[in-house]
Amino acid sequence: MLKLSGEVLLNRETGHCIDPGVLGLMAERIGNVVEMGAEVVVVLGGGNIFRGLGGATTGIGRTTGDYMGMLATVINALALQSALEGKGIQTRVQSAISMHEVAEPYIHRRAMRHLEKGRVVIIAAGTGNPYFSTDTAAALRASEVGADVLLKATKVDGIYTADPVKDAKARRYAKLTYRDALTQNLRVMDSSAFALCMENKIAIIVFDFFQKDQLEKAILGKPVGTLVSDFDKSKLYD
Q: Do the Cβ atoms of 136 and 190 come closer than 8 Å?
């Protein structure tokens, strides 16, 4: 399961909400791991277009804002599908909100069949419910499809003791337990997403998507970023 932030697609310099260069990089990296034999499910956020929580500051109700955010994820999913298919990679978009003209409805058995056929499955519209983030959607779908690992791709190379931009003394965790991530209120993922992964024993790897070969290394089981799982605390920091 690959969780990609929608904000990664945003180019603040040009004002483009979907940067063609980043989109192409996403497709290239995903294509590489498909060629390695991995079955890939992708959940994309929509923060580059609209974020439900942010809508409250402009007078948009939280429920309406969350539905608007879900629709934004569908736009991103269709863009990524187009980029992947441009590279010859078979892809299906499944949406938790019915919109038959552009995406299949999310059906667990159908998603599993696509994976068996070597297709990339892109999950759009989160869980289909307001008040749930795309992180939680990724953890939920990862649990449903029996994913080995949830890969959280960000612009930062892991989880730190503090914001590394603001605190030069911040240290990067090499490993964390689920419980530590919850009790320390580390805001890399929602607590509900952490809890789902903990209950279903799905390891989480938080890594920098823009560092070369990080996704490929993660698929091969090589250490990248920060691993969140159940482990002995012999090595806590890099």
A: yes
